[in-house]
Amino acid sequence: MVTIDDLGILRDVSYDGATLVVTITPTYSGCPAIGAIRADIDAALRGAGFDDVDVRTALHPAWTTDWVSAEGRRKLHEHGISPPTHGATATTGPVPLTLSLPTRLLTCPRCGSSDTRETSHFGSTACKSLHRCRSCGEPFEHVKEL
């Protein structure tokens, strides 16, 4: 439903001589999906007729949810996943640290209500949390801001 470009994982596509080089950045350095993403890119490009493909991983700069495109946010929302807040990671000075999790005001991607609660800080993947809407009763996932 979302592409690696929608999610901001795709960093660069270029040629190094005859080799097509695709550079990706995982959503976090321990992301277990990066191997599958790399293999899917390689298979899709080879299937499209590219014989010499090199899929590289770049960890710097680190991926941020600010790289999720407007289209990616729209697609996540349409499929019942609360997208990350845009601009949530932009800072220009010291980053305040707290000993408790920040309270997030999320709207339900199904009914639009802001009467929601977090049920688990970790969802199907470490980069998502689980929530439930108190208005419609539906559960939903939220992509955490990084």
Report on the structure:
This is Phenylacetate-CoA oxygenase subunit PaaJ. Pfam families: FeS_assembly_P, Zn_ribbon_PaaD. InterPro entries: Fe-S_Maturation_MIP18, FSCA_dom_sf, MIP18-like, PaaD-like, Zn_ribbon_PaaD. It comes from Solicola gregarius. This protein has about 150 residues and is of the alpha/beta class. Among the domains are: about 10-55, no CATH class; about 70-85 and about 105-145, no CATH class. It has helices at about 35-45, 70-80, and strands at about 10-15, 20-25, 55, 80, 115-120, 130-135, 140-145. The strands form two sheets. It has a four-stranded mixed β-sheet. It has a three-stranded mixed β-sheet with strand order 1-2-3, covered by helices on one side. A hairpin with a 2-residue loop joins β1 (about 10-15) and β2. The two termini are about 20 Å apart.
Helix-strand topology string = EEHEHEEEE
Q: What about the largest sheet?
A: 4 strands, mixed
Q: Give me the side-by-side strand order of the main sheet.
A: 4-7-6-5
Q: What is the total tally of β strands?
A: 7
Alpha carbon gyration radius: 18 Å
- Give the class from helix and strand content and strand pairing: alpha/beta
Tell me the distance between the termini.
21 Å
Provide the low-confidence segments as ranges. none
Beta-strand proportion? 15-25%
Helix content: 10-25%
Individual helix count = 2
Report the average pLDDT across residues: 88
Quick one: overall form? elongated
InterPro entries: Fe-S_Maturation_MIP18, FSCA_dom_sf, MIP18-like, PaaD-like, Zn_ribbon_PaaD
Protein name: Phenylacetate-CoA oxygenase subunit PaaJ
